[in-house]
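It is worth pausing here to work through a concrete case rather than discussing structure prediction in the abstract. The textbook approach is simple: state the sequence, then state the predicted structure, then interpret. We follow exactly that order.
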Amino acid sequence: MANLKSFVAIYPLAALLLMLMAMSTVTQAQTQTCSSQLSNLNSCIPSVVPGSNVSPSTECCSAIQQVEHDCICTTLRVVAQMPTACKLPALTCSP
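Step two, the predicted structure:
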């Protein structure tokens, strides 16, 4: 009977641990996918350099289409927080 009680007490902890491990694996896979999608945006560099009047290439437009919405949004949020994390003034951009 003691073994059954200890099993019942440990089971929820083991289930929680397995769930956290599964979530970690999914998050790592999403991070790798996002990173590879963002690395494909290198073809857009000529179009985003300040002062450049170069239109986005077909490769750039194709790369942008391949980036998932969450990947773009998360990246922009992280980039916006970087100056504060580096103890620099927050960025403000005007049109």
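Step three, interpretation. Residues 3-11, 22-26 have pLDDT under 50 and may be disordered. Residues 2-42+56-85 form one domain.
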